[in-house]
Amino acid sequence: MRWFLILAVLALGACARSGVAPGAAGLAPLPPRALAPCAHPLDFLRGGMSRAEFEIATGRMGDALISCGAEKQALGVYLQGLRDDFAGQEKEK
Question: What is d(CA 53, CA 31) in angstroms, rounded to the nearest whole number?
Answer without folding.
Answer: 32
